[in-house]
């Protein structure tokens, strides 16, 4: 069986343009509100040209989400059982906040999918994400049992980190409007670190 030929520079460029255009379109309009024609126009390609690379809107969305989820879960995977618990958690918070700053469209795309009932992500949430959260919840519980951090429900701790960091991306317009001329990311890192450090520091 012969191997598929390596994509040319133009093919790589066009695929990247399609995925970037799809990210912009999906994050703005959701999956249902987006069309192949919109994505093709955003990418600067004809619809037939786009369909040469991806046979359907579903295929584009699947590839986008596959890469997004891998990026999104990497900071949680990186919690080190051998590291200092407080620093591991605070670093996780800061990485999630930085991702909201660097990847706001990706965050909104994920949020839109969840709000719609996660029809295209339910298997991933039920399997891969669930297994990872269970693994890290056990780790957090072990740190709490050892008295290294204050006791808190481990899953709700993760949920709160997700909520507080991803809010800056998912509600970007609201946040920036209310902050006026101040960049919300100037003070957010220190605020969140103080919040979680106070919450998790063991009491004498």
From TrEMBL:
<dbReference type="Pfam" id="PF08362">
    <property type="entry name" value="TetR_C_3"/>
</dbReference>
<feature type="domain" description="HTH tetR-type">
    <location>
        <begin position="12"/>
        <end position="72"/>
    </location>
</feature>
<dbReference type="InterPro" id="IPR036271">
    <property type="entry name" value="Tet_transcr_reg_TetR-rel_C_sf"/>
</dbReference>
<dbReference type="InterPro" id="IPR009057">
    <property type="entry name" value="Homeodomain-like_sf"/>
</dbReference>
<dbReference type="GO" id="GO:0045892">
    <property type="term" value="P:negative regulation of DNA-templated transcription"/>
</dbReference>
<dbReference type="GO" id="GO:0003700">
    <property type="term" value="F:DNA-binding transcription factor activity"/>
</dbReference>
<dbReference type="InterPro" id="IPR013573">
    <property type="entry name" value="Tscrpt_reg_YcdC_C"/>
</dbReference>
<dbReference type="InterPro" id="IPR050109">
    <property type="entry name" value="HTH-type_TetR-like_transc_reg"/>
</dbReference>
<keyword id="KW-0238">DNA-binding</keyword>
<feature type="DNA-binding region" description="H-T-H motif">
    <location>
        <begin position="35"/>
        <end position="54"/>
    </location>
</feature>
<dbReference type="InterPro" id="IPR001647">
    <property type="entry name" value="HTH_TetR"/>
</dbReference>
<protein>
    <submittedName>
        <fullName>TetR family transcriptional regulator</fullName>
    </submittedName>
</protein>
<dbReference type="GO" id="GO:0000976">
    <property type="term" value="F:transcription cis-regulatory region binding"/>
</dbReference>
<dbReference type="Pfam" id="PF00440">
    <property type="entry name" value="TetR_N"/>
</dbReference>
